[in-house]
Design goal:
The complex is a heterodimer of chains A (66) and B (343).
Chain A lengths: L1 H10 L6 E5 L10 H10 L7 E4 L3 H9 L1
Chain B lengths: L8 E5 L2 E4 L2 E4 L23 E10 L11 E2 L3 H4 L1 H4 L4 H11 L1 H5 L5 E4 L5 E9 L9 H15 L5 E11 L12 H11 L8 H7 L14 E4 L11 H13 L6 H5 L6 H10 L1 H11 L5 H22 L6 H10 L3 E9 L2
Parallel strand pairs in B: 9-10
Antiparallel strand pairs in B: 1-2, 2-3, 4-7, 4-8, 5-6, 6-7
The chains are: A alpha+beta (66), B alpha+beta (343).
Chain lengths: 66, 343
Amino acid sequence: MMADILPRAAEQGYAPDAVICSGKTPEGRPSPLMLWETLVELGVWPAWACVKVDDASVGIGEGRAA
Amino acid sequence: MTFLRGVAVHAVETGCLATASGDVPAKAIVVCPGDDLATLFPDALEDVTRSMLRMLRLAAPGFPPPATTIMSGLGLTRYRGYATLPEAPALQARLMTEQPAQLANGVHLIVAQGTDGALIVGDSHHDGKTPDPFSSEAVDQLILDEFRAVFGAVPPVLERWTGTDASAATYSLVTTPVAAGPARRRHQRHGGLDQLRPCRRRDRRSSQSERPCRSFAVEAVVFDWAGTMIDHGCRAPVVALRRVFADAGVVVSEAEARADMGRAKRDHIRAILAVPRVAAAWAATTGGAASEEDVTRLHDAVEPLMRSVARDCAELIPGAASLAATLQAHGVRIGSCTGTPGR
């Protein structure tokens, strides 16, 4: 589904450096695995120097867990 | 003003104080930990140590009361206001030969008279993270020797006091790890804490007596997609989920469909089916509890539906693109992750 959304977001000027979708990690939110996978793909660390922005409680839980 | 006495503060986060009796929201937080250097912001305080101080109370019957608080010359090398004067090095060199033991034990003389007439006489300073629990008689004698040198005689000792304080080579220990902006305004209004100021201004002043301010660069910002950057209010998944449940004969409310938003879609469907009201409605319609096959069937139905709805809901939230661009221009990497599947 993100395959449909990404081009539309890019048209509007938003193209993130990494996109991790559900199914790429053994567990989804609120586990931190998708967020860790994102940091690995970006090649950034430490996790405490990164910010997670979300509107849903499991997504905020993911950020705290990471 | 409310004092929470006997309440430990576990943690300070932006806008929130975590205490033993619950969280306290706050726009500005000033941390005054005394000599507890380990609980809050230990990294910011790593150049600070503890200092053990000793003072004595002397009986003073018939002793001529000092007209005012008395300080002897030893204090001139201890207090920065004097110790940075051009004459100080010469005095320091002379005291090193005349009173090396006092200097080695941080002894200087301050004498004040309490309301009961007794003299409070201080003090000595010994730095260390774990102060010695035993009070040394030899150090007390160094203080009393200095007293004798100034007053000529030493009245009997009534009480001995040992305490600890925070100590650092730098003069100002004020640092601003949180909420510098609002904190500054608040303190300017109240006046007493007006030496608090934001880090950047202090860095510009960069005097040697002030500790450098710690800061760290944000390496990356990771945004969620639906509801955060696109699709006001997460309409696409909610619309699709409610439609496939309706097609299966079970009405799911907007709130029920939204409650577990952000989970992987299979987990989300399981969570909706686990809501007691939905489980009951499902049983009433289908005659039994939902199985994994039902989850798969709903999941397979919701996927294509979400794709078609999503194409209509993929409009960026106003400001999202410019925020990401601004961060990227500052060298911050932009990541994203989502409970939505890729394909």
